[in-house]
Each structure stands twice: as structure tokens, then as C-alpha cells.
Design brief:
Strands 2-1-3-4-5 form a five-stranded parallel beta sheet, with helices on both faces. The chain contains six helices and five strands. Strand 4, helix 5 and strand 5 form a beta-alpha-beta unit. It is globular.
Length: 151
């Protein structure tokens, strides 16, 4: 199993993920699970780098650590940027907030924080099945919307 990050450009049809986690222990837990799910992963370690990557690539999954660069879930610069995006563009990403606060899969907390899924740090070892289920539900929920946008 390879856990190396793909630093190249993505090919059409690739499953892509941007990991905005500046805590090395959490990175080492999340990246291999994304790789096992078939995602090509880019790391975003600095705000400017993340914003450039978001402007350049359309990631399928964006994982954001709530305390990225000393922020919290309410003043996180990455979450703030993602919520400023137009609705159709925003729905193209499945945004996961890695949190110390909320419970994993708490839909109401995720909604209030404008993310698609919340994963508590204590559930990080179960990230892969939690993400797989969340992405499938998101795909089903927005299937009609995505089809309408494609026409």
C-alpha cells in the first residue's frame, strides 16, 4: 500500500482530495485512508497554498482540520473560503471537518458549520468507512442537481 502523496497534476476521472491538516499525527492517519479509497491526495499546509490549490483544482473531497494554523471552527480561513464560493461550485466538493468538538456524523453540527460531514478526532481510525458512507450519501443527494447542471 502506497501512502505517498501525488504531487502531479490530476487526470480526468481521478478521485481527488485536498487535505488541510497541519498536525502531522492527524495527517499520517488520514492520508493513507484516502489513498486506500483511491483518492489522489494533495496536502495544503499553508493558507495561501490551499487557496491557490482550491482555485486551480476541483477536488472531490476537502478535509479541513478545525485548528488549521491555530484557528478554530468559527474563524478557520479554509472553511471561510469554501463557504464564500457559489452554491454550485461549493456542492462539487465534499467538505469534511476534522474536529475536537462535535460528534462524528452530527448532521446538524455539520450544517451549522457549512460542511458536509463532521469527524471527531477520536474517530480518526474509522475515517475511511465514515467518508465512504458520507460521500455515497452526498452523491445520492445531489445526483439530480449534478445532472441538471450538466445539461
Amino acid at each position: 500500500m502506497s501512502t505517498e502523496l501525488d504531487n502531479s497534476f490530476f487526470d480526468v476521472g481521478d478521485k481527488t482530495a485536498l487535505v488541510c491538516i497541519d498536525h502531522q499525527q492527524y495527517q499520517k492517519a488520514i492520508v493513507p485512508q484516502l489513498t486506500e479509497l483511491g483518492y489522489k491526495v494533495h496536502l495544503g499546509l499553508f493558507e495561501e497554498d490551499v487557496l491557490l490549490k482550491l482555485a486551480t483544482y476541483n477536488y472531490d473531497v476537502v478535509v479541513v482540520y478545525e485548528n488549521f494554523k491555530g484557528s478554530n471552527q468559527y474563524d478557520n480561513p479554509i472553511l471561510r473560503e469554501l463557504t464564500k464560493r457559489a452554491g454550485a461550485l461549493r456542492r462539487q466538493h465534499f467538505v469534511v471537518l476534522l474536529s475536537h468538538q462535535g460528534a462524528t456524523n452530527d448532521a446538524m453540527a455539520a450544517f451549522t458549520l457549512s460542511v458536509d460531514q463532521l469527524v471527531n478526532i477520536h474517530d480518526i481510525s474509522n475515517f475511511r468507512p465514515v467518508l465512504r458512507r458520507g460521500v455515497a450519501q452526498h452523491r445520492d443527494l445531489y445526483a439530480f442537481f449534478q445532472e441538471a447542471q450538466a445539461q
